From TrEMBL:
Organism per entry: Desulfovibrio psychrotolerans
Record's keyword terms, sorted: Signal
Signal sequence annotation: 1-27
SUPFAM superfamilies: Periplasmic binding protein-like II
Lineage: superkingdom: Bacteria
Protein's name in the database: C4-dicarboxylate ABC transporter substrate-binding protein
Biological process (GO), any one: transmembrane transport
Pfam families: DctP
Keyword Cell wall biogenesis/degradation appears in the UniProt entry: no
InterPro entries from the UniProt entry: DctP_fam, TRAP_DctP_sf
CDD domains documented for this protein: PBP2_TRAP_Dctp3_4
Amino acid sequence: MKGLRAGIAALMMIFVMSFMAVSGAQASEIALKYANFPPAPTFPCVQMERWAQEVATRTGGVVQVTTYPGSTLLDAKNMLRGVMQGQADIGCISLAYHPGVFPLLSVMELPHGFTSAESASRTAWDLYAKHQPAELDKVKVLTMFTSAPSQFMAKKPIRTLADLKGTEIRGAGLISSVLERLGATPVSMPMPEVPEAVQKGIIQGLLTSFEVLKDMKFAEMCKYETVANLPVYPFAVIMNKKRWDSLPEDVKKVFDDLSAEQAQWTGQYMDTHVETALAWSKETYNVEVYTFDDAVQAEIARLTAPLIDEWIAAAAKAGIDAQAVLNDVAALKATYEQ
Ligand code: DTR
């Protein structure tokens, strides 16, 4: 009888331990490192935190993302390579920092006349999803989004193109080419380096979306803003390919289902935040806001038109059907700008 009891006790112990082992394995976390280059308050990092939260919620806590804003894990220059080499599982890249590397997706940096970050972000993601360009085939792309249209923020008033002549203005990618065609002197650098460059007088201002007036305190140094509605800057959130392949199928589905939604969320966040930041800048630093009139806008369109032909030539050289891509951008913009 004693032997029977001991046997039953042993069996129960084995059952309890194996159950704990299985449940432990199912609930085992998937820990991911997500690197970002600009300061935490900026919109690329705000969208990163939102994505991390959504992923934790939608996977029932199985996926836990540790975020590294402010270049604390990888900076802008090392982001693309760092993710490909697995130093971070996920990273956010500004495509404009890699001239010539993205012959198809750099189309998003052209003067298409997007009026909102939401329409440009949704266009960018749909364009990527349709073409899946070879330029990003060494990573998994989790989403894409863009800044809001680019505006001037400077230490002196910029009311006409004459005010731009020979003035050092920070840009990146094709925005630097836009600055050159408008007669300014473009100075390219990653966003985190811009505040110091303004403070030191290396540049007199910058051309990007207005939310940085608040998020990076440019309103304090650049009290003269000009609405120019120049091109947006495209971003991609990329994941190390091997790490992506290692994920369970149900987790991959959560990530894929989030792609288009995250693009739209980020664009909507950006459009609202630009308005908030501009109002805050007027209230806090009494900044002056000018708007290029129609005559200046027409002159800008004339001066920047050749950039489209240059993009077509470079895309064709990379084996891309450039006109088909431009047609897609126009159709997506018409849909999302409604
Ligand atoms: N200036 C562009 C795009 C951009 C707009 N706002 C932010 C905030 C933080 C980083 C980048 C941006 C760029 O440098 O990518």
